[in-house]
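cron nightly-structures :: item 1 of 1
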Amino acid sequence: RTEQNSNSAAVANSIFSALSETPFACTSLTPLSGGITNHVFRGQLRNPLPDGTTEVAVSMAQVALLAILG
């Protein structure tokens, strides 16, 4: 896992958990961009996909914050 600010770290932990039992489970997430509600990470896959892919882009939007801010 990577060093991130506290908001990105919370989002990364959520992503690690959500993907943990899928073919997209990651060993690390590197933040590429992020703000209050939208985050993009580069994920290093735990196991390569059938086509040999070892890295993925993961995007996550925090809809709950939109309701609070909106």
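cron nightly-structures :: done
The chain has two helices and three strands.
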